Amino acid sequence: MNFVSKTVRKSQDLPKGDIIRKEASIPLSNLMLYCPGCKRGVKIARERNEQGQGVRKCRKCGHKF
Ligand SMILES: [Zn+2]
Q1: Where does the chain have alpha helices with state H?
Q2: Domain ranges, ordered by start, for the chain
Q3: What Å distances lie between residue 14 and 4, 5, 6, 32, 35, CA to CA?
Q4: Which DSSP letter does residue 28 get?
Q5: pTM of the predicted model as reported, rounded to 2 decimal places
Q6: Cα-to-centroid distance, 41 and ligand 1 (Å)
Q7: How close is the Cα of 9 to the center of ligand 1, in Å?
Q8: pLDDT score of 39
Q9: Cα–Cα distance for residue pair 52/47, rounded to 1 Å
């Protein structure tokens, strides 16, 4: 699952503004990425870093994208 955060401007509906989290669908083909470490397309592992942001990482060598 991947989330994108979008800051919404203040409006009559949302006087204080708000942050909307929306689920973004990811095509399965995007799970294969070229890894410079492995020099080929690899499967990607997802994990969160210290800031809580999702990062993509090579399953084989651990290269971070
Ligand atoms: Zn790799």
Answers
A1: none
A2: 2-58
A3: 19, 16, 14, 39, 43
A4: G
A5: 0.47
A6: 8
A7: 40
A8: 95
A9: 9
